[in-house]
Amino acid sequence: MVQDTIFTKQRMINLAIIITAIWFTWFAQNFFDEYTVRIINNVAIFIILAVSYNLINGITGQFSLEPNGFVAIGAYVTAILLVDAEGMQYQYYIADPSPWVLALQSNFFWALLFSGIISALLALSLSFPVFRVRGDYLAIVTLGFGFIIRVLAINSPEITNGSLGINDIPEYSNLYWTGGIAIFAVVVILNIIYSKFGRAMKAVRDDEDAATAMGINTFKTKTLAFTTSAFFEGVGGGLLAALLTSISPDLFTFFLTFQLLIIIVLGGLGSTTGAILGTVFVMAGLEWMRFLDEPMNFMGIHTEAMPGMRMVVFSLILIIVMLFAREGLMGKKELKDLFKKKKANK
């Protein structure tokens, strides 16, 4: 009876959080200024990318460096499906667009869905060679995948327009799309984490050999995490393309993966709540500190513009946070664990 009561209370708290997130999405879209909405859109997209990346890297413990590759695939698939044939012919200068590229056309929902499915199918096929190695070797293999995707984008001008990229992508990514899909991604990933598959992922993270000895199919577990992560990274890439309205291979360098790695480590590897907090801290924080690059008057002292100063200050903040919070802001804890701790202290 007590367990049923606790479970019901937890469900009510989760429902309240979801309703609050939905309300905030609606309120921000309708009442915030365009600049603020743009920042929140960007934060929402990176929440999708961070929580999905955390599933393979933090929850399952596989040091993977592939996100930029899957984000690129999602972005290009969405762009190709959204830009009409006339727009393709107008902007493809290096080579004429392929006939099948001109023939492809869909609405935004199907473009995002196909982006996620294609990324997931590619991740499924990659899992067979990729998960033959572990640790640093896995990182090198997945890092190479990201480089390959970028090189293919540059050297396939009839599909991707090469180094020039694809422009004039319809701007569909408003907060209803980005915020709604971010909420959906968080709910799906949390449900996976608290399922038997999630417990198996954590067992693989803690000791893969012991998990194998206990009868867990480690390859299946890692493949599920890898495929799910790739699906949402592909969808996030599609949303990013429809937000920026212009993409090129330079957008999907290793810096994108490195940025996501900073976010999930700062938030706490293995914590979805931490991935969300880390995204807000990094993406919104960097925008908020933009005033540091501009001329300032501080206590009567006038300083000239110092471009890049915000990155210096932000780096110092990161160093301080990681010195005093070795496991990140949340460690491996989720929001519900903080409520339990407070209740136990009382």
Automatic annotation (TrEMBL):
Pfam families in the cross-refs: BPD_transp_2
CDD domains according to UniProt: TM_PBP1_LivM_like
Lipid biosynthesis listed as a keyword: no
Main localization of the protein described in the UniProt heading: membrane
Membrane topology label: Multi-pass membrane protein
Keywords attached to this entry: Cell membrane, Membrane, Transmembrane, Transmembrane helix
Localization per Swiss-Prot or TrEMBL: Cell membrane
Transmembrane spans: 12-29, 35-56, 68-88, 108-130, 137-155, 175-194, 224-247, 253-286, 307-325
MF (Gene Ontology): branched-chain amino acid transmembrane transporter activity
Keyword Protein biosynthesis: no
Gene Ontology annotations for the cellular component aspect, listed alphabetically: plasma membrane
Protein name (Swiss-Prot/TrEMBL): High-affinity branched-chain amino acid ABC transporter, permease protein
Native species: Arcobacter venerupis
